[in-house]
Amino acid sequence: MKKKIFSFCIVVSILAGACNSEYGTELSEQTITPPDPILQYDPPVRAGFKTVAWSMVNDIDAHERAAAAIAIALYRDAIYIAGYDSHCSGKKGWRVEKRNMGDGSLDLAFGGGDGVVQSCPGAWWVDTWINAVAVNETGIYVAGVDTSPWEGYGWRVEKLDLTDGGSIWTHRYNPDTGQAYTDEPKGVSVDGTGVYVAGYDHYGNRRWHMRKLDVNNGATIWERSGDHSNSSDQATAVSVDETGMYVVGWISRNGTTEWRVEKRDVKNGDLLWEKDGVSGYPSAMTVDTEGVYVTGRGYSPERKWIIEKRNKYTGDVVWENYFGDTPDSIGRSMTADGDGVYIAGSDISHNTATPSMQWRVEKRSPADGSTLWAETADFSSGDDTVYSMVIDDDIGIYFAGESDDSHGSLWRVEKLFKE
Questions:
Q1: b/e map 71-105, b = 16+ CB within 10 Å
Q2: Average pLDDT for residues 180-207, to the nearest whole number?
């Protein structure tokens, strides 16, 4: 199986900088043959991502080697990928790409001619990054952190133009200005009435925070907070459908952390139902006509990757399944169609002398959670992580993540066939 790695120079027009010829000024292509992963799971595992359609790995900065594709979304025939690279004087900064669904190529009309929008929304000496992206016919919505001198990290939500990536509006939220706390949005979703953002802020201790923004100007329509313990609580993901807004996260209780799922009214943020769950850290959720699906990492007694389905009207558990036998196995992203539930995350590879993280994707039955198929891919001798996944209406599954080498992390985007 062969993979293609692309290295290219990015013009940082925002900083009025120029490409260093040391990195090269044109897109260069290199073909490599990665080692065949070792089968370690019972059938129906298909190791090695043999159904890959295309793979893009960008060595964005040959010196710093700090880049990760964190979030991915689809709209019509385009893929929007958001995360960070190290273009901000060696620090992490915001990065958004627009690519073609068919072959993965960059849309050169986006970002002023190179298919990329970059920004450095913070003090020059600190890292900033994007955690989530959502897209509909009104625009691209990205959520992450920024900072300014003498402030801790704060929420930053931006709306970008679908065609060229130009900024339409910016929404900032930082309740503890002058403090060294981090306030961070972790998930974003959008419908015809607004943009929904969920994460955490600090008021004495870390607590859940959620808000709905106007799609036209970014103004706050409503906001809600949840201080569920006297310790550290965090919302990690949000989804929305015609019946409500769903938020998942964790709360601290009895010396450990527990899953928590809420459903709220989209009109005013009022709580419709709330459910606590297993001990651990939930990472992602999705919702379809059949139910609400949540994935993450279990903590005790099952230190495993966990997937569960809940009734969307009551929050009750329909089924719950586990995978993996180490605390490093974690489901990070999920989506669903009428045919299956797709989960992407990481587990342990033993392909090298030192065990490391590898990509894993599964398709499970919506009816009972049983595994229909699974694939793993170990791209490097270091840790490889998939952060986000989305599917189209036809045959494709799209992934955003990173792969590692001896010098740092590389931005990685892949397309697989569903079957």
A1: bbbbbeebbbbbbbbbbbeebbbbbbbbbebeebe
A2: 90
